[in-house]
Amino acid sequence: MVEVIHNKNYVLTMEEFNYDIVYVIQNREFSVLKKLVSNCYNFREKIAIKIEAATTYEIECIGKRTQNAHKISELQQELEKLKSEMDAIKLEQKVVVKKLSNAIKKQEELKEEVNDAKLKRDSLTLEMIDLQQESEKRKEHKVAKWNAIKLACFYYKQYLDFSIHLTENEEHEQIKGSFFVCDADMKDKYFVYVTNYDSIWRVETIEPVLKKEHLREFKNIVDFSKQSEISDLTAFLCKLRDIFVKYYLNTENIK
Questions:
Q1: Does residue 46 register a pLDDT over 60?
Q2: Which of 73, 104, 130, 235 is deepest in the core (most CB within 10 A)?
């Protein structure tokens, strides 16, 4: 069997060294020796070339491995960087989604507030209309009442000899009834103050002060046990004049 040494640049067979060395030396076959020496040199040269090529290839491989290691390291770092960026993007997406959710929620709340404000505005508008109508009715009622009071004052003064003076403010109305005004000596001695709070007339002051037994004569007209509430103002004034005349005056000149 012939052994063959392979290389990508050459092929070497052992036939080149297949000689009987003892025979060659004894017979002084110098041509064969030269050939053997030449073959040895060639073999050594080829081996050296092979070793050099292998060494160069190994160095190239080491360089490539080093480059690949650096590249892998760079790629790993880039991958970690990309992972960090992806995590940051995911976090930012969550923040954006949360902000968007809050914005939508706030928008819904604002819509509800706007709707509530519209409802309140409409309600207030209706309430203002009602108040205006009520105010007009009150004005009409006050005008009618004032006209009735002026007419009553005229008749009271002409036929019953007493006058009525009305004062008004935002909280209440007050009437001063003065009796016997045609008599200069008595017109400022006999009078009464009554006030109207929430459509309820009450006695404030009677001058001169009436005796307890005379107060009983106002039964069903004035409730002195309940803040002196008056159930019938006209009846009260007429009754008070009658009591003044009956118990507190010299009635000789009073008609």
A1: yes
A2: 235
